[in-house]
Write the structure tokens for this entry.
Amino acid sequence: GVTQSPTHLIKTRGQQVTLRCSSQSGHNTVSWYQQALGQGPQFIFQYYREEENGRGNFPPRFSGLQFPNDSSELNVNALELDDSALYLCASSIQGTLNYGYTFGSGTRLTVV
Amino acid sequence: RKEVEQDPGPFNVPEGATVAFNCTYSNSASQSFFWYRQDCRKEPKLLMSVYSSGNEDGRFTAQLNRASQYISLLIRDSKLSDSATYLCVVNTGNQFYFGTGTSLTVIP
């Protein structure tokens, strides 16, 4: 399946954070979502073949990387209190979104 | 206007009841539709896809009305284990758009 690390993280406002995701075997596309408390997940961006392949309404301080082994990182610079959320990684095979996503269990980030 | 709108609830129903959730979406070009279930402090998990012809999986029935841009989920004979948040999800382009979720609590 999809694995994410760490599971929980506490950071101070202004710091930088890196979250990691390992895709399900055979999946070549990874998408990142932010889920604030009481809200549905919001699309941050998607990577396919190590290139950004779509981006939601998030500022440039949210950036990502996808590696040849289909693992991925989400980096957030200059953390703000509102960045506190559950960050979800989902992997898929490009062109098969009709089958839905498999999510990792998420990283819960708290910014204080 | 939000891509996906859901009634957040909460819905509190007795065991054995039938409960229906509704969802509307704004983009007529949306391509595929799903219901996800999310337990407290867990990740969303795919419950079922939604097809225009309607589809059923045990006690769960999903319907899609493309003309009205409306999706529904019906749960029959509710169980305590059905208590969760149900997320309506729409695939448009290469993005999934999630509703805010509808909270269901099944009461003994």
